[in-house]
Amino acid sequence: MRASSAQAAARAQLARRRLIMALGAALAIAVAATTALHTFWPTANGAASTAASQQSQSTKTSAAKEQTASQSKSQTTAERALQSIGKLDDSAQISTVGFDLDTSSQMQLEQALSTLESAGYTTSVVLVDMQTGNALGSYAGSAVYSASTIKAPYILSLAETGTIDLQAVVAGSTDADTQTQSNIDQAITMSSNDAYAALRKTYGADAFAKWASAVGMNVDVSDETLGYYLDISAADMARAWAQGYGYLFEDDSSDDASAADTDDSADSADTDTDARAWLANEFANTYGSVIRPALSENDTVYSKPGWINGEGGLYSLSDAGVVHTDSGDYVLAVMTDAAGEYDLLYNLIATLDQIRTDVMGS
Predict the structure, then answer these.
(1) What is the pLDDT of residues 300-313, one digit of tens each?
(2) Where are the beta strands (DSSP E) in the chain?
């Protein structure tokens, strides 16, 4: 009995030791697991936070890029050109936006400008490439007597604001429309002062003033101190023609999602396009253009020149408009008081055209 009791006691003691060892091992495992969990969680949490931050930044960057692309896509050719004109230094002999002149081009331009300047003439120039938006100016803000160049912005304002129904005018729908068509034709192609005066008396200056303000022109076009003419800078004349370019050559009305897709609306759009084409063609056949003779016969020039040589103490030899070339279109305004100096202007215009081809284009 004593031997059996001793053996039982020994077995019980061994069991207790094994239980204590097992509990110790379990406790050690639990402590190790807790430590590992505390070590892992901050790292995992930090990685997750970094990933979330990077995703957020990526989303913001992508959204910014999409917004920029959307803004660029929504900006019209005319708006981009107007923006570039506004960035030119109005008082600098040479100012550029969107590109840099190379040494050779700058020397040629300086020579052409200096020839006019040394002869005592005021010259104001702006050229804008309509594909790239790149712009070049020389004393862009200097005002020169407009002479008949002002007839183009005035007529463009009447058409674009709807002050005249251009389709009805072209069709000669009424006697009044027929008379307006004749006045426009004579004022543009033959530079008739009487026809221009008739238009001014019929339609006034309100629409012209609102249109000029919307375009960003600085000159007060309603000021009749000089009659129906005024002093105007190349920058303002280029603004007028950049807007005119959009109206004559880049009508976006067919992209209007609200436009009804019907035969009638299609016919109306075609008629409107034909009317604008008629007006553009008027500017392609102007008498006395200074730009046209200076360029290649392959180029098409839509412009309205103006000239006066001392009458009333006024001087001007100027031209402004759109030049269509095989490599793209550009707006050019050359305003000077160099009356009669055609060769000097031909040289300047040819130099500007070469710079646009070599440096400013796409």
Answers:
(1) 999 999 999 999 99
(2) 95-97, 123-129, 135-138, 143-145, 231-233, 300-303, 306-309, 315-325, 328-336
